[in-house]
Structures
1.
Amino acid sequence: MKIGVFFLYTTFVCGSSSTSYTRVSENLITIPEDIPADTEIIDLTDNRIARVDSIPYPLPALSEIDLSDNLLTEFPDFSDCSNVSVVKLKRNSITHISADRLNILTRLTHLFLRYNSLQTIPDVPGPGNTLIELQLHGNKWKIMYAHPARYKTYHAECNEA
């Protein structure tokens, strides 16, 4: 069920290249099924999405997904989006990250998990050590297996005990 779906589909042109960008923010509870197949960036911030078991259709060009400010309690399943390099999950209620779900993202370079309810996190170098930025601050850490020296940018300050 979708509530108040509003779709804005825009193509940004930068020099000789273009990026297809889709932004949807209207109290969605699921990922919409009508996102254009050539979309490279999906911005689903400020919705009511509580769970992502999978992306319901192939998006081969997708490189960035933003699910910040939703109701997620677990790390989404991006198994159908292996080309994604940027994942933004800020200000949700994620309590757990499965290493299996993280390892699916073989091209992951930037992972934003600020202000969730994480207490532990698996060692997350990413397959092939592709992860260069990891933002973890504002969580409730008990055990952290991430090694800061592996990342170009690493933010974990201001965590709650």
2.
Amino acid sequence: MRNCVSTHPSSKFHFAAVIAASGIGLFAAPASAQKIMNNVKVTVKSFLGKIGSNTGYFGAYGNVERIATAALVVFAKATDLGFSENPTTDRFDKAYRAVSEMKFAVACDGNKVKQMTATPLATDTGKEGPLQAPAGVTWGVSSKQTGTTATFQWAVKAMPHAYTLPAFNAIKSRTSIWVWHTIGGRISCPAGRAKVDFNLTGSKFPTHRVFVDGVERKTMTQGPFSNLWRASRYDRTMVE
């Protein structure tokens, strides 16, 4: 006897009822309707890169400036011997002047950020030989969901250990003891995956670098060493 499929209306109804009762779906939900969880980590490091010949100067119109510049060159060489930092990871390993980091849990629903939560901002400062620099100072810290995306921002400043400050002033008196970095960005969900776009700013010395999920994304290379003596016009205690 041949197998056959009944085309009687009552048979179609019975078949549909069996499928519904069994919990078997004939069609999978489209990917755009499924939430995808993403973990994102953004890390910023400020560090003393190799200075080399990029020492800068204090002017060349008087003996005081020339003597200060000569002392600056010697100080730069000593700094290179002790530091010349170039971090290749986002680890908190003290090989920096300051580091800041925030982690995000992002739920993507299609191309939209459905939900975002963030950890408190984590910070650290480095060491100068056996001396531990003071804790950094943060401001402007925020993270929030804004419509179909999420935004974040923060700023951190750090200063050397108090015992090292006389060495700077011996070369030339300065008020700008704080180096700093700021970052602001947006998290979006193209194709259901979290994407981070950001803007990095910082003091003109030292170097600043951003890592996203442990991968280097941007580096702002430091200017002349003499920039440490150039105070911001907005806050004379901070490097320009």
